[in-house]
Design brief:
disordered N terminus
């Protein structure tokens, strides 16, 4: 009979809702904070920003800026969400210590101690190990199966429990992976548009339009900055979370191998 795995409470947020909310926030910040008349000479957002006013300079970056801002906010919000979710999946204590304690209990063939360690640790990793230990106890009492069949049953339980618990940890990571490239490309698009406006101002007959020229340059540089910030942040957080997930998967594999080996060596 299959063991019923108790799923841990997972902390997840819809990436679509996060993107919509972040765009709304970015749009409001762009128009009401960066575009405030207080940031511009003569109170005119169509004119020059006040000298040294960073908010007005960002506003001159154009309509691609709120898109880039929303992408950067999305990266930050989803990163916080993944940090909480993966932390809950890992459990309360340090994962390395948990694995060490489980292996020590298994070496002593003390299944009750191992079960108590899982109850204390909690999280997805502990749930997977606990399901395997429960199956272990069932197979010890099973008399109608050969040893190889019992080992396969424990391995199957381990795989099923892992398949149930682990996929949720990678939720929203594809969005972060997309932002690593998309943020840079959108920033590059804004840079190109800004340079086009700058060259258009230079191409006018007579003296170049200084306002149009400075606006184009501002648009190019501001979009470049936001694009780089978005892409770099997404790369850093994506690499960090995938590394943590790999370490959790490795811990489960290590404990699972120990459980199977312990059963194989202690059972006739």
């Amino acid at each position: 009979m299959a063991t019923k795995v108790k799923k841990s409470k997972k902390f997840t947020v819809s990436a679509f809702l996060v993107i919509i909310a972040c765009y709304a926030v970015a749009w409001c910040v762009f128009h009401f904070i960066f575009g405030s008349p207080d940031n511009f000479q003569n109170g005119d957002p169509n004119g020059h920003p006040i000298q040294g006013n960073l908010l007005g300079t960002i506003y001159k970056g154009g309509m691609i800026v709120p898109i880039l801002q929303s992408m950067l906010l999305t990266v930050l919000v989803l990163s916080i969400e993944r940090f909480i979710a993966i932390g809950r999946a890992q459990g309360k204590g340090k994962l390395v210590k948990f694995v060490e304690n489980i292996k020590n209990a298994l070496q002593k063939n003390d299944m009750q101690a191992a079960d108590a360690i899982c109850d204390k640790q909690k999280g997805s990793v502990a749930n997977v190990v606990k399901a395997s230990l429960t199956k272990y106890a069932q197979m010890e009492k099973e008399t109608g199966m050969a040893k190889d069949q019992k080992v396969l049953a424990i391995q199957k339980e381990l795989e099923e429990a892992t398949a149930l618990e682990m996929p949720s940890m990678a939720q929203n990571l594809p969005v972060l992976a997309t932002m690593t490239t998309l943020g840079t490309l959108i920033g590059l698009l804004g840079t190109v548009i800004g340079m086009i406006k700058s060259f258009a101002a230079l191409a006018t007959a007579g003296a170049p339009d200084s306002i149009a020229l400075s606006t184009g340059i501002s648009e190019a540089l501001v979009n470049t900055a936001f694009g780089i910030a978005t892409g770099a942040s997404a790369v850093i957080f994506y690499s960090y979370f995938t590394t943590r997930i790999d370490s959790i998967t490795q811990a489960i594999d290590e404990v699972g191998f120990t459980i199977v080996q312990t059963f194989s060596t202690t059972q006739k």
